[in-house]
Amino acid sequence: MPPYPGITSAVGLLTTDLKYDLIKTEFQVQGHIDFDKLNADLSGMEGELHAQLAAAGIETPQMKFVRAGDLRYVGQGYELRVNLPAGEIDAHAIEQVWRAFDAVHEKEYGHVFPDNPIEIVNVRLTGIGVMPKIGPPTVTGGLRLDDAVVRTGRCLFRVGGALESFDTPFYAREKLPLEQPINGPAIILQTDTTTVVPPACRCTAHTDGNLIITLES
Known about the structure:
Layout: H1 8-15, E1 18-29, H2 35-55, E2 63-73, E3 80-84, H3 91-109, E4 118-129, E5 149-159, E6 162-172, E7 182-183, E8 186-190, E9 193-197, E10 202-205, E11 211-214
Parallel strand pairs: 6-8
Antiparallel strand pairs: 1-4, 2-3, 2-4, 5-6, 7-10, 8-9, 10-11
């Protein structure tokens, strides 16, 4: 059980990198590449995504841009995704793209057609805004298990197919001593959730902030 299970998804959403995608139809064939148009299209897409990320509050040093192209042999009805290099694409760079496409095609289908011209159908650009990440939680815990007891009450648990009543301690999670096994039954309370430890099971508050429940065998 993570430290704050009620908000774990929300925390993940807030710390996940922001990402935008653009795609532009290109239709350029090997041997007849208009480098001015290709570079202008990629540059324009990067400018657009830069503005989007900036509007979302991302500073330039935290921006990353990843290029790719949808390529195929002329006449094919399907494309394969191939990474495109950063910076200006020239005759040397485009040769690396063709070789990369051949490698992807051979890996995917087991063969290549070296005499067939390759076509760039689409160019794609992904703009990534790197968000700050959270570090491991700081966990202190209490010194004695008795100090974590909130109250004790009768609770019903299913044991061996039948319901049985047990005197059950209720603990405050933030006061649990670390690395000390707690025998069930037990109820562990915190603001955003409640953890139930059944009879014949054990729960341990670890130093990494997680509650680990060992189920009965």
